[in-house]
Amino acid sequence: MPPTPAPNTGGRHRVGERNSHHTVFVPGLLQTDGYARALFRVERAPDLPEEIDAKVNARLERAQSLERRRVPQYWVILPVPLLWTPILQPQPMAAS
After folding, report:
1. Confidence class of residue 18 from pLDDT cuts 50, 70 and 90?
2. CA–CA separation, 61 vs 85, rounded Å?
3. DSSP bridge pairs for 21
């Protein structure tokens, strides 16, 4: 699905801007270690634990781009049911 233009841009995307709409999972850039690890375990069950570790670490490194001094605009629409869909046990899910 192509990204949706941000409000007030006349249908155009600006440089450094990314928009997302997710209905099932929290987007990768916003996932915590536990959330990403749980998804990779389900999606990539045949992968070795070291491969899952590498994928989770790569995802968390990409997420650090949101912590830079000059952060790109990142628009995310999360539907309420997504927030109530348990991927982890209650305690780790609350941390996510």
Report:
1. low
2. 25
3. 77
Q: How far apart are CA 38 and CA 52, in angstroms?
A: 10
What's the Rg (C-alpha) of the chain? Answer: 15
Output the CA angle 38-42-48, nearest 5 degrees. 90
Element (H, E) at 54: helix 49-63
**Sign of CA pseudo-dihedral 67, 71, 72, 75:** positive
Q: Residue 18 pairs with which residues in a beta bridge? A: 74
Return the SS3 of 77: strand
Residue 12, pLDDT > 60, answer: no
The string of pLDDT tens digits covering residues 28-87 is: 888 889 989 988 888 877 788 899 999 999 999 988 887 877 777 778 888 888 778 777
Pairing of strands 17-21, 73-77: parallel
Domain boundaries, the chain: 18-95
Query: Tokens standing for 62?
Result: 């990409």
